[in-house]
Amino acid sequence: MSINTLIKGLKDGDEIVGFYLIKEIEAKQTNSSIPKDYLDLVLADSSGNISAKYWDASKTDIETFFPMCLVKVQGLVQVYREKLQVKVIRIRKATEQDGISITDFIRSAPVGSEELISIIEQAINSLSNDEVRTIVSFCFEKVKDNMHSSPAAKSHHHAYYGGLAYHIVRMLELSEFICRQRPFLNSDLLKAGVILHDIAKPVEMVSEYGMVIDYSNQGKLIGHISMASNWITEAAIKLGIDLQSNIVLALHHLVLSHHNLGEWGSPVQPQLPEAVALHYIDAMDAKLQMVEDMFGITPDNEEWTPIIRGLQNKQIFKLKL
Amino acid sequence: MSINTLIKGLKDGDEIVGFYLIKEIEAKQTNSSIPKDYLDLVLADSSGNISAKYWDASKTDIETFFPMCLVKVQGLVQVYREKLQVKVIRIRKATEQDGISITDFIRSAPVGSEELISIIEQAINSLSNDEVRTIVSFCFEKVKDNMHSSPAAKSHHHAYYGGLAYHIVRMLELSEFICRQRPFLNSDLLKAGVILHDIAKPVEMVSEYGMVIDYSNQGKLIGHISMASNWITEAAIKLGIDLQSNIVLALHHLVLSHHNLGEWGSPVQPQLPEAVALHYIDAMDAKLQMVEDMFGITPDNEEWTPIIRGLQNKQIFKLKL
Amino acid sequence: MSINTLIKGLKDGDEIVGFYLIKEIEAKQTNSSIPKDYLDLVLADSSGNISAKYWDASKTDIETFFPMCLVKVQGLVQVYREKLQVKVIRIRKATEQDGISITDFIRSAPVGSEELISIIEQAINSLSNDEVRTIVSFCFEKVKDNMHSSPAAKSHHHAYYGGLAYHIVRMLELSEFICRQRPFLNSDLLKAGVILHDIAKPVEMVSEYGMVIDYSNQGKLIGHISMASNWITEAAIKLGIDLQSNIVLALHHLVLSHHNLGEWGSPVQPQLPEAVALHYIDAMDAKLQMVEDMFGITPDNEEWTPIIRGLQNKQIFKLKL
Amino acid sequence: MSINTLIKGLKDGDEIVGFYLIKEIEAKQTNSSIPKDYLDLVLADSSGNISAKYWDASKTDIETFFPMCLVKVQGLVQVYREKLQVKVIRIRKATEQDGISITDFIRSAPVGSEELISIIEQAINSLSNDEVRTIVSFCFEKVKDNMHSSPAAKSHHHAYYGGLAYHIVRMLELSEFICRQRPFLNSDLLKAGVILHDIAKPVEMVSEYGMVIDYSNQGKLIGHISMASNWITEAAIKLGIDLQSNIVLALHHLVLSHHNLGEWGSPVQPQLPEAVALHYIDAMDAKLQMVEDMFGITPDNEEWTPIIRGLQNKQIFKLKL
Amino acid sequence: MSINTLIKGLKDGDEIVGFYLIKEIEAKQTNSSIPKDYLDLVLADSSGNISAKYWDASKTDIETFFPMCLVKVQGLVQVYREKLQVKVIRIRKATEQDGISITDFIRSAPVGSEELISIIEQAINSLSNDEVRTIVSFCFEKVKDNMHSSPAAKSHHHAYYGGLAYHIVRMLELSEFICRQRPFLNSDLLKAGVILHDIAKPVEMVSEYGMVIDYSNQGKLIGHISMASNWITEAAIKLGIDLQSNIVLALHHLVLSHHNLGEWGSPVQPQLPEAVALHYIDAMDAKLQMVEDMFGITPDNEEWTPIIRGLQNKQIFKLKL
Amino acid sequence: MSINTLIKGLKDGDEIVGFYLIKEIEAKQTNSSIPKDYLDLVLADSSGNISAKYWDASKTDIETFFPMCLVKVQGLVQVYREKLQVKVIRIRKATEQDGISITDFIRSAPVGSEELISIIEQAINSLSNDEVRTIVSFCFEKVKDNMHSSPAAKSHHHAYYGGLAYHIVRMLELSEFICRQRPFLNSDLLKAGVILHDIAKPVEMVSEYGMVIDYSNQGKLIGHISMASNWITEAAIKLGIDLQSNIVLALHHLVLSHHNLGEWGSPVQPQLPEAVALHYIDAMDAKLQMVEDMFGITPDNEEWTPIIRGLQNKQIFKLKL
């Protein structure tokens, strides 16, 4: 009997005992003449998902379990319609005594949130222009707590715990390179743009454990781009910085133009060198991370990843040279 | 000899003496072997434009006259390449003694600016919700002085002195009708949306006597939609209104969504009933005014107006029933 | 036991007896080893829909009931997969003695069809130009009977009994306002355009009780826009009006251009002031009615309406001030 | 001295005497200190165009000559800015005694109009279905006189005398082939569609000698597609054919759908096999004729034709194998 | 009892015995309390498909049958949810002794593959230019074996056994007609373009018995257009033909441009007369075949075909005159 | 008198003597009654352009000078219509004795061509996979000589001497950074993609001194993307590398997909991680270079660059912090 084998490693016939996260749960009924309740589940750990059926679910069971609940499961791995599935034999909720944490069971960025936040804060501190630094810092403080967990998007890219912070950090690295390669770029502005461009996403989206559950009312009615622009105004007023200054103008512009086109959500198009750079740094990091993330969850024996919506609905090929 | 006949009424062979505005001026040289200076002009009054040539221009003349300068002209109306043109015989700058004002010579809204401003202020005062009213009032005060002259657009529609105020006033009329017809609409929100939707245009565009000369740096880099959104934030902070309140959320949304689509400049799409109404009220007023304005400047003997860019580059037919 | 409670008001555990309309019906079989027939139903009244299961359906039952059939039902309201559902205990077809009418059970315009038809007829009679009036009248007579029930569209807007007549009446109100606000518009033409623009819809679409079941062959192969244009020709010929007259030209143009763009179905673009007005009046009324209709069917405890296809697939927010 | 050499054959230094058509004419003035009138001309014959200057034009000359006027010219061919140009020495209007006709000087289809009209009439007579034949014949009679000269388009394709009739005849040939190749197509319908599809173009466009001068009011406000559809209705009424018959339905559909997409002007999309065939036959004939016409006017020493707007603004390569 | 009646002719109550192809097969389980295995099948012959259920499937049965396997079936035709379905009573795999072949049970072009291949080879031999002929022949030899079965597309058109060869042959017929009608076209080039344009499809797509199962890696990463272009290069090198010659240039261009637009997959747009012709010949043949194929599978009592994706998602009308 | 002052530094009233490049030249005639020849010129050096007039041009002068000819000019700088212009007093062709070279007078990359070529060759040598290296080397050798001067585009970006080599070198730098940041990328493939992606541009475009004069026939009919793909095939055949190998497949794919979308010229979309990276590296380098190049030619006193077509026709703002 395998104890807490990672889901990725399960195979037909395995008997398992271990802790899992309930990602989806639905009470269903068999279509027999006397319908019978059962639970249709998706179990998850940090390595992936597997569907499961609990045929002997009682009324109490149906009321006990819920999405994002940690459980201990005993079961049997079977092949059903060409896919692996767990037939649940016993299941109970995890207790404090089990000593496990939900964060062990969810997908997250390859670097820890604490470290990511710390790198971003160093970048903020390194901004040489006082007004840029204090405005960026003001905005960052608004979401710092949420930043630990916030994903960068619902499903497109960096859609996991710490995804947004990770996206910012990688973009900062790329920005530094580009500023070295092209000294006519203003490093303060570009770094500020990187940190501010998606800064309102943790308020635009309602997420739990790195998974976006919904968009907030503000998110739907204003959108993260305009929210961030308004935070800059708020920061300038509260910090006593002239709203008409070129610094404030530039920060607004960087945020507002970073989606490049109107149909992608930007009310103005890039018209500062740093705004042009910001858009392409953002795009490149997002697209490459989509590919890297997809490679991570594509089984070793598959030649092609699943379809990636953000890459024109194409699959990516795992070329062997 | 006709004294100050309106340009619209001039005909071949007329001898004229009168005051005109120089709308365009360029010093040119004949291509003769000994090139000679002359002035190529466009003269204007409130009824239209006419081109003019001053063949005997001296060096002093060339330095004396400039665009938007009022002049007294004696000349002869001639047909040249199927168009009327003034052959200038004498020309001098108007002086204080002439007792004329530039505003008599420019195109302007059919209702006086003072009256338009006053109607808008009444509408603001009629807003029953205190927070809506004070925010709208705060934003309006920012541009009230410019509002007298500001056009609503560079060339699309209401492109004349007082055009923006006139656009707002006609939209307020339409809003009142729609709110009576459909009581589920919130009249305060819709009226606020009407007043705020283009409120930043006088700062987005640099205009003189109702003609847009250029866009400001803020106008290009932020755009009037995001500028107005930021003014709402500024107003709320300075008036002590909760930035998270639904009132503030709604006002942001009305302004941000009024262009309807991303490719038309709106970062979010209408998601309040009043935002849907605002977009169509704005569109209907702008499009019908384009037609009405074009009818005004189309000669009586023409069946078709010039091409109207904002109406899919179509001409409008002057149907006789 | 609740007698004929409106569907909108039902709750878990209610026992009901009442009359309902069968909106959808399908005979299904359980997946048990000895499959058993049952009826899967959607019951409706004017307040909404609810799904229902009749587990004890006999072969006779399966042959007896059909879509749009009125029935008397005894049943039990239960929660199934988070939704209310009626477990049917007894069901029979309604009879003449029950004294009920299908029109009591369907969704319909907020104003009665008779009144709407009468308002449209008054508007026709008020047309001052004889040729306009007789052509409009000729076309209206073609569909007057269907106009009582005809919806304005399959699902986009005014998709209910009397929807088309209601759409026309609201547009007439808006037209009157616009003609007062902008006297350069020809009121006869605009009103004629409003009445004619969708006049062929009752023939384009096959509808029953205000619900579109299908498009007719003519509807698919010619479309309501070209059909109405051809009716104008037919009217002119039969009424002895010159086919080359400006009146006929204008009426054709109003109908043909009212969808504004080629990709929206209009073979020509608006080139009369009244055609520009007609398009925006049509658009504004349709869009605002979509919102108002959706508000009507959104449960009180929901903040957002369902997605509205005709509004860029957006939901509308029910803002509380 | 070369007498009436074709324009295509002129070269630098030629002295010419001959008859030409004035295609364009403008009275201009030299920019010398004492401006002097001259005539700026474009002369044409069936082989092409050449620009010309008449420096010694008197006031009488300026009033004498006009566009589409036949003239006898004596002149000298010179190179000016890398192009050939005629310096006019003497010019007079052609008289009856000169015994020349304007049709000798314009571009026209490679087959004579009489022959083309006769082929189309034979095709109409060959239609086996009486109702199809009489409707097509009715519509054809409306424009038969104009059909001799009418071009098929303003500039896209077949833009010359008899161009429309030639387009129809070539399409009839292609239709016959396709009907033989695919017997499931109804030959009567396809041939009727070919003859009717552009039948209203001679009324949509105002042309002279095969050159489109303008669009008619009907052309702009209704368009040739809807005009032809209305002619079918008129024909059916006047011929006593049931407006609801499938024949009438099919003819409407063929005409209305032949531009294939809404954005190309068709209010409905092809939904009959013959409508699908008609669109592609029309497209293929138009596109190939564009190429063939352009080859005809491209000088022998050029490898590439001028840009062809109807072929995505591409030039076509004159490949030598 | 009907023996091997074509599926198209089956009706309710028929008892059948005959050979069929298993097109789809899935082992399912009843939802009864003790789930029971059964087989859910789609049976096919050359006339169409029918679904079937084998309720008494044993474990052995489940392992025995697979997609594309030929079987002998005894069963009963029943109506289920308004559709015919076979209740399987007995089923076994066909054996060699049964003397049947899979090709008798699949959909295929109306002309036999051998004949089609032979016509194409004659066309190749008839190419008068040696270099054109040898290059075309080289490319054709690469896929000649696959060409017997290869469909022309996954589902759009000619999606059956021999479909590609049939498409080429019909296009050759059309090419011959067009070259006769327009002698300025180079017949060698056009015929070569027809044969080469889709020549790499048998390698781009993985198909079995005329049904596309997947795209190959080359197909996804290079695409049939660029693959064919590269085969031309390969042919030229191996045949010693100058890569810079106009022949090679023209063949590349014909292949590369035949989809006409970038968004349809062509990196260059047609710029040779023959390339323009090729595109429209390809489009016309594909579109008309879609219609003809759909007519073939639409039941006689249906007025409209199913939706055809390649014709703007429209259905085609089966008009009765 | 200023000797060979850079054009950028000229001011009104300067008398100059120096060497310049004739960039444009046209013989014109004055419009005086006795027309007189003169030369209308654009003079250039590495710092910019200035227009010039030579009023005393003789027939011999007109035949002597031509575009791209180096001349010695004596003249006077004057303001004409608000722009500086040179009134030429004396002009002669430069001779060998003058010891000047055309390359001193043209715009070129900031790094010398020799150095750029050498860097690219080092990058090729550093490719660890033998097949990748030899194929890349084979293709590079085809254009190595042209690579010294070839621009990367006609006007979009890097449109100067050595522009293409400079583009490749900057992209190599960026590639190296990205490969370090994301080790899952194959460095050989990405570097190969960078070197090959525009490798056929020197053959697609006909350029002189870094300025594109025209596109070649191959360039128009095949395009640089498909040309490069065919060179890979040629290389593989001549180097004996398997055409079906994954290496060859990957190199084809990188080249073919680098424009990302069909409408931008790529017949396939990126489906390898390195292809995704290549597209964004290419885009970022091109866009940032456009900005940097425009900054270089924008006068110091201008706040905004000229419009940049490749950046959505926007100007870029020269922000002063």
From TrEMBL, chains A, B, C, D, E, F:
It comes from Paenibacillus mellifer. GO terms for molecular function: hydrolase activity. Residues 160-296 form the HD/PDEase domain. The keyword Ribosomal protein does not apply. One of its GO terms (biological process) is rRNA 3'-end processing. PANTHER family: 3'-5' EXORIBONUCLEASE YHAM. This is HD domain-containing protein. Keywords: Hydrolase. It comes from the Bacteria.
